[in-house]
Amino acid sequence: MTPLAPKDFVRSPDAMAAVYSADEGEAYTRRLATSHYENFHVVSFLLPKNLHQDFYNVYSFCRWADDLGDELGDTEESLRMLAWWRHELERFYAGDTARHPVYAALRRTLDRHALPIDPFADLITAFEQDQRITRYRDFDELFAYCRYSANPVGRLVLYLCGYSDAPRQRLSDATCTALQLANFWQDVTVDFEKDRVYLPLDLLARHGCTVDDIGARRFTPAFGEAMREAVQVARKLFIQGLPLAGQVNRRLGVDLDLFSRGGLRILDKIGQQGYDVLTKRPSVSKVERVGLLLAAILRRTFSKAA
Asked: Disulfide engineering: 250 pairs with which of 37, 148, 151, 305, CB 3.0-4.6 Å?
């Protein structure tokens, strides 16, 4: 049975009033993570089996926060429900009885891995910010957003895999911010349809183009130059974070290498189409993904893992 989506769950008095055991919570997160509409594999086949449920649990927290922000269809309602989700998080960390299946499932994950509250709270902050801010003046503002929206995910992955040191976290932050930027540059027109523009306004102005060009899908040489600079910023961050794949166990290293190389390939695709992301969305084919996976496995097989 497919679990209720967050938008349906919060509108069901019975679901909201129920008390969930850890087993029920884990069954819920497992179904949510494996049946969601996204074309996204929460658990890689390279991930040790004993970590699968923990990843389902953390993913479900992120999925819930994201859907409360994007799927309710009303800004004030989203902010109200995100405040409720934050309150439940704080109750959970205070040791209170879980009143939601995701938190019921997360109890065992927290006990096993001593996850701090900060990455979870930061993600909620990002989804709250999405309700209030749709434009960014410069890269500093955009990086500040990625610090809440992207970097906590990488840190949670490291915690689940047994890494909590600051040097690895810094490399993870670079990779996660780069991945977020690559996604933004890939989906410029998709985001605009949601009234969100992640290309910094000062970048557009410096190159002589405007947000109106995005709305009209009007590609110009000026917009191409702005995208070229944006791609260079993301590429530099990917390169900065690449060493992380060699500083973790080999299985995780393959996944990290694959994500980074996949992001870099998206940037390459943008360049190959002349930085025109307004008339064509760049994408990586299934064949290319297989090639990236094989290359990542070979690199990690013949490199020294931590």
From this structure: 305
Over the stretch 227-251, which tens digit does the pLDDT of each residue have? 999 999 999 999 999 999 999 988 8
User: Alpha-carbon distance 115 to 85, whole Å?
Assistant: 17
The first and second tokens of residue 134, run together, are: 């749709």
Q: What is the rounded CA–CA span in Å between residue 4 and residue 275?
A: 40
Give the DSSP H/E element, type plus range, for residue 140. helix 139-149
Q: Work out the number of other CB atoms within 10 angstroms of the CB of residue 248.
A: 23
Distance CA 70, CA 194 (A): 10
For 66-75, 237-246, 278-287, 291-300, which range has the lowest pLDDT when averaged over its residues? 291-300
> The tokens 């390279």 sit on which residue?
46
Does the predicted TM-score (pTM) go above 0.85? yes
Q: Quote the Cα angle for 219-220-225, to 5°.
A: 105
- DSSP assignment of 224-287, as one string? HHHHHHHHHHHHHHHHHHGGGGGSS-HHHHHHHHHHHHHHHHHHHHHHHTTT--SSS-----HH
Q: Answer yes or no: are the C-beta atoms of 114 and 34 closer than 8 Å.
A: no
Per the CB < 8 A criterion, the answer to whether 33 and 44 are in contact is: no
With tokens 């909620």, the residue in question is 124
